[in-house]
Design a protein that fits this description.
By secondary structure, this protein is of the alpha/beta class. It has ten helices and ten strands. The strands form two sheets. The chain has an eight-stranded mixed β-sheet, with helices on both faces. A hairpin with a 2-residue loop joins strand 1 and strand 2. The longest helix is centred in the first third of the chain and has 15 residues.
Length: about 280
């Protein structure tokens, strides 16, 4: 049976960075960035429907999945530098860039710093800043899901993630269990992500907010905001500000919470394909 994707590795900024590669290299390139404390395979069901028409690269951001942990930390500009390095090393620019949650913040930095490398930009349910309640919700979520004591087996992990995310389609739970965890020396399944990624949600990242609003003013490429009406991360005020400062942005609202791609994957994919097809 042929593999749907190939695993790739790059040495960037002294770190080993993992990515998956789907579709024909001759097709238009799409780079997809996951959120905080996740990994690239969370995009698999979405990419599967794109790979017949696009060359898709899904990256494990530093400190996540099978990419290396960074002693220097996880500031948004460091992560953006990794994405620049991936695009340059693979020679695939300009690309369509898609980010969800914390991947949105990285995508804004990438596109603002080097807009010539981005064809179209898709930002799923996050922005330069969270809503006030969203900041608290994100901090609590990361602390709860990063500092896990470990699971005995995959069934116990599946039950935990299903209980935490009952709104997700179940194949995303399956992917979480398969790719989110590693078995440690004690035989427990524990998160692959560096526990230090949780500090992204703290005060150390406050300077990034002003920087990302400045970068937002430079996003001249067509930009689509994909927003859940019940999101606990951003609200209408944040979206309105994004639309006012981003030169070429539009918003599409979904009847979901924060996890638009995992709660409404068919609708998300359809809207994404329509937007990319306008290129």
């Amino acid at each position: 049976m042929l593999k749907e994707f190939e695993d790739g590795w790059l040495e960037l900024d002294g770190l080993k960075i993992h990515y998956t590669e789907w579709g024909a290299p001759s097709a238009e390139p799409v780079v997809m960035l996951h959120g905080l404390n996740v990994q690239c395979h969370t995009w698999d069901p979405i990419i599967r429907s794109l790979a017949g028409d696009y060359h898709v690269i899904a990256m494990d951001l530093r400190g996540h999945g099978d990419s290396g942990w960074a002693a220097s930390g996880y500031r948004v500009r460091s992560m953006a530098r990794d994405v620049h390095g991936l695009i340059d090393s693979l020679g695939i620019g300009p690309v369509h860039l898609v980010g969800h949650s914390a991947g949105v913040r990285v995508a804004i930095a990438v596109a603002g710093e080097r807009p010539e490398t981005i064809r179209r930009l898709v930002l799923s349910d996050a922005g330069p800043a969270n809503s006030p309640s969203g900041a608290v919700a994100m901090r609590d979520f990361i602390q709860a899901t990063t500092n896990l004591k470990g699971f005995r087996d995959e069934a116990e992990a599946w039950k935990f993630y299903k209980g935490y995310h009952p709104e997700w389609r179940e194949d995303f739970i399956d992917l979480h269990v398969r790719y989110q965890l590693r078995r440690n020396w004690a035989g427990k399944l524990v998160p692959k992500a560096d526990p230090d990624v949780q500090w992204i949600t703290g005060s150390v990242s406050l300077p990034d907010v002003e920087y990302l609003w400045r970068m937002s003013e430079l996003l001249t490429m067509p930009t689509l905001l994909m927003v859940g009406r019940r999101s606990n991360v951003i609200d209408e005020a944040v979206v309105d500000r994004m639309l006012s400062v981003m030169p070429n942005a539009e918003a599409r609202w979904f009847d979901t919470g924060h996890y638009v791609p995992r709660e409404a994957p068919e609708e998300f994919t359809g809207v994404l394909r329509d937007f990319l097809a306008k290129a």
